[in-house]
Amino acid sequence: MAKREVTQWAGVSDESVLARTGRSWRQWFTVLDRAGAQRMTHKEIVAVLVANHELGPWWQQMVTVGYEQWAGLRDRYQKPEGYEISGSKVVPVPVNTLYRAWRDRRQRGRWLPDAPFEFGKATPDKSLRLLWRDGTKVDVFFVVKGEEKSRVSLQHRRLPNAKAAAAMKQFWKEGLGRLAEVLAARAR
Predict the structure, then answer these.
(1) Of 44, 116, 139, 163, which alpha carbon lies 20 to 30 A from 79's?
(2) In this model, does residue 58 exceed pLDDT 70?
């Protein structure tokens, strides 16, 4: 991959990185290139930031990931254990109704038919782990947003490549959209 000019890296805009770190993405890329980061591991780049720049741990990671993406050392959605995508949706129902829409096979069939997974660990109205047949894992979290409103968020982990990550990003976007439509219709 070649270096690219984009104003957002690691999910962070140029304006945000400048406001929070005092440097733009372009300035960070220059600093890290001069430090030889092109030939460094992720941990080594973080160590440069720790030793030479006053950034908190979260910003150390974001600047490092942003640099790796810009320099072609890391793809979008890439993590050490493979690729990972996330998604979320707020729906106009209580959290227990949202949780049941995932756990109940008949309800789930209305918005996520034939999904190839088994349930792993579950904490009612809080979280689920889905074990996908291909060996990937999905962590699903449920949060109360009000008496009649809740949010589901998920992370699909250990995807094998960028193409699979993009496909699953679209799959979950569409699936969560259908879930919201089904639950909104029931709430009326």
Answers:
(1) 116
(2) yes
